[in-house]
Amino acid sequence: MSATETKAAEGTTIDTLEVRRIMEMIPHRYPMLLVDRVINLRLGEGAIGIKNVSINEPFFQGHFPTEPVMPGVLIVESMAQTAGVVVVATMGADAEGKLVYFMSIDGARFRRPVVPGDRVEVHVQKLQSRQNVWKFSGKAIVDGNIAAEATFAAMIRGR
């Protein structure tokens, strides 16, 4: 979907969005951009975000230097960013670059550590939306195992 296209029909599937396109859609940049690719995006429904975790991530310098573990809050942030891409793709070009603010995070559970070398698949599914407020469930999956899960709501608004 290009920046000039308008809102597409819900349920339409976009196979892959690369990082450059993601950066057009959401305002996050390194080191806070936590989604490298989005696959199987279903407008108005959900998507899978891909985060390739590298030892070069800046948070590993302090979390933890002798046993690097991706902070749980950043795993939840990657869920929110993936959901943000779903929202922007669904709403169309007018929503690109708008800010998204967490409103709630419920039921966050961390099942296993995410470490350098992991490929995290971030599955998000829309639970409901009303105007500019969207609620999603999310799961971070590594090698077929749930690493983290949460339900969260966010509000999208202009700058």
Q: Could you please describe the fold and organization of this structure?
A:
There is one protein chain. The protein is globular. It has 159 residues and is of the alpha+beta class. The chain has a seven-stranded antiparallel β-sheet. The protein has two helices and seven strands; from the N terminus they run E-H-E-E-H-E-E-E-E. The protein has helices at 19-25, 72-91; strands at residues 13-18, 37-42, 46-52, 99-110, 119-130, 133-142, 145-157.
Main traits of this protein?
7 strands, single chain, alpha+beta, globular, 42% strand, 7-stranded antiparallel sheet, 17% helix, 159 residues
Kindly summarize this structure in a few lines.
With 159 residues, this protein is an alpha+beta fold.
